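Subject: design request, 361 residues
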């Protein structure tokens, strides 16, 4: 059937452990559906700094260019934790986003029925939550003009800067995704204070009203949305927002799913390769101990199947296997409760892979 080339960038901390399980699951998908996945590992982040002096070596960038998709683990750790250092692990990730113009970050947040008890929120609040954040990824405060000034560095500024074109393309993508779901689109901004947000709101309104009149569009201020996300998260479907707001809100949303270890993401541009990675960080305190939750990485592989390769049935097979294994009581430590079987990273990945293969028989 299909043949797909995947660049695997394990990175730092628990990155190598969780990407190994995502690869295991993709291999199971290949065996079940008759696809060939060709994996090529490369360095990024702190591991790349140690080996080459660069967080994104030219060899890694070239490997990604010759791939259909990129699977990333995590970058960073205490060893490279000086924010004033000229070379830092996160520059590798930012470099990938810039090199491939990955302007949209998709972060689905789904509460699996088996995990409604894993969140500190009430069951009636989280049951049925299935929302999709679309975060603009290459503009805003993280990429605008900045400076640390003054004789002793006592003054600094960062600039939230957006153009009509940047807003249009991410809103268009979010609207297309909303059209394939429940036809609800929520745009989050701070238009009562920020000029960039007023442009964001005006352009969003124009694009949706002109091109997607079948959608229900609402605008919500970011501070109000942060409250609504905890009080009534099931009311939302697709949420589109700018870079920094999206970064903060999706971390908040991890509480809904029970653990940040459950959340996948996809970073997409106008053309391949897309970047697929779990939302969590490198978690150096548990690295190498077979304790990390690989489900975020495994569900990122499902997003790869869906958005990079257009393999919807295969993506659903992965998601259904994850749900079945959770229903069977398998848990990593971060999502464990009373009546469950606590397993390690490798055991969770193997159980999901075997479920995919078992369902084929």
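Subject: RE: design request

Done. Sequence follows.
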């Amino acid at each position: 059937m299909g043949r797909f080339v995947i660049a695997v960038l394990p990175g730092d901390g628990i990155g190598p452990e969780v990407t190994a399980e995502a690869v295991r699951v993709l291999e199971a998908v290949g065996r079940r559906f008759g696809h060939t996945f060709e994996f090529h590992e490369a360095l990024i982040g702190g591991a790349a700094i140690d080996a080459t002096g660069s967080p994104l070596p030219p060899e890694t960038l070239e490997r990604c260019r010759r791939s259909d998709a990129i699977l990333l683990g995590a970058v960073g750790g205490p060893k490279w934790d000086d924010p004033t250092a000229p070379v830092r692990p996160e520059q590798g990730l930012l470099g990938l986003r810039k090199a491939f113009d990955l302007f949209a970050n998709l972060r689905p947040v789904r509460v699996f029925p088996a995990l409604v008890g894993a969140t500190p929120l009430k069951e009636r609040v989280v049951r049925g939550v299935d929302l999709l954040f679309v975060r603009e990824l290459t503009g805003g405060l993280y990429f605008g003009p900045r400076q640390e000034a003054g004789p002793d560095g006592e003054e600094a500024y960062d600039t939230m800067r957006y153009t009509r074109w940047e807003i249009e393309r991410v809103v268009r993508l979010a609207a297309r995704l909303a059209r394939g779901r429940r036809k609800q689109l929520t745009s989050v901004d701070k238009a009562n204070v920020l000029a960039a947000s007023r442009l964001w709101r005006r352009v969003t309104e124009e694009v949706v009203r002109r091109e997607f009149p079948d959608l229900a569009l609402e605008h919500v201020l970011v501070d109000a949305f942060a409250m609504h996300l905890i009080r009534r998260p099931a009311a939302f479907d697709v949420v589109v927002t700018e870079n920094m707001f999206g970064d903060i809100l999706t971390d908040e949303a991890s509480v809904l799913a029970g653990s940040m270890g459950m959340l996948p993401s996809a970073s997409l541009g106008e053309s391949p390769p897309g970047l697929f990675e779990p939302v969590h960080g490198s978690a150096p305190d548990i690295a190498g101990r077979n304790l990390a939750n690989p489900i975020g990485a495994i569900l990122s592989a499902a997003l790869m199947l869906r958005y990079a390769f257009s393999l919807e049935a295969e993506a659903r097979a992965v998601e259904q296997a994850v749900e079945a294994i959770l229903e069977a009581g398998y848990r990593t430590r971060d999502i464990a409760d009373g009546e469950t079987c606590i397993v390690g990273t490798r055991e969770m990945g193997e159980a999901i892979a075997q479920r995919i293969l078992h369902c084929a028989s």
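The radius of gyration is 20 Å.
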